[in-house]
User: What shape does this take?
Amino acid sequence: MTALDAVSIITTKRDGGELSDAQIDWVIDGFTRGEVADEQMSALAMAIVWRGMTRSETARWTSAMIASGQRMDFTDLPRPTVDKHSTGGVGDKITLPLAPLVAACGAAVPQLSGRGLGHTGGTLDKLEAIPGWQADVAVPRMRDILADPGIGAVVCAAGADLAPADKRLYALRDVTGTVESIPLIASSIMSKKIAEGTAALVLDVKVGSGAFLKTLDGARELATAMVELGTDAGVRTVALLTAMDTPLGRAAGNALEVAESVEVLAGGGPADVVELTLTLAREMVALAGLEIDPADVLADGKAMDHWRAMVRAQGGEPDAPLPIAKHTETVRAESDGVLTRLDALGVGLAAWRLGAGRARQGDPVQFGAGVEMHAKPGDSVSAGQPMLTMHTDTPAAFAGASAALRAAVTVEAAATPSPAPLVLGRIGA
Ligand code: URA
Assistant: This one.
């Protein structure tokens, strides 16, 4: 047996040992090149789920995944780079107003983003609802957009060369029950964000029914691991823990969320979306070393100018009508009272069943599909009043979606709910 072989690495971790730097580098490199078999990597991932990894193992694992591809470098840009990553939630369209807002504040925002899977939507799916908009941007063009003081933000698909080890490993974890491991999740997310070349990063770690992590303790653990990885790699990193028991805003679905984001950029939009956009923007601007209040930049229309320029730079037409679903159906309140619960997971499932999301990678999405929310927790409703509107091109989906929505709402006769805070914690310098 040689010093480095897959079986001894698996058994070391299986028995609770700590992997050496050399073992980690070897196994990630071998897996990327197809020399460590999928079944061996699956066994190792399961051993990590079971035994965990130390801070230094996780840092080395992350570096090895970054080294499996290209690390981008934007240090020569004339403005500071800063990005945001959300762990995903229902109605989470925050990147859409946030990226142009932070660019309008004077930073460059290089965001490599993903498509949605399951009940949470993907930022690229939302932007692709804009006629003409293209997710693929070559690196030299990305650099030009970021350097342009009238644009400064690019949200695009990650190229095949960005942390390819993570791409392969995440696909394997998805089908082997090995996603749920804090070190594996933290290293997966942070390898992509560090490789993207941003100098600073704000993480929005969602907590609640519609989030990947259901408990505050779990979210805090993940956030801490990611902040440590970013900091150790020289990326100034802060994490906010934010609530995801109720969907963000009043729309879940691709084109519906673009329309709501444009409302925010125009100075309106739902209060929670505005609050979270400004809170994250203030963190990003501070990490970028800029002294400007994003609220002023939102109010004076500059963020909207950057949005329009950013959409055009990727082939989109900001004034083109957005796709509209062919069919709508309404869910009405069954009694008088106060809406005390609008469950994010239920709304996400309904939007997904209506066609806004995909079950498997590569499936198409319906851009017009989704759920509009006419009432949010704390609002009074009367029997028969429309609470939710479902949008789809496939009316057979209404039955399953309305069942999910009916289970997602609670109306109480005499309730005085106290507003739940949106920001639940902050980790980082
Ligand atoms: N998102 C990622 O990119 N990786 C994970 O492991 C989980 C969520």
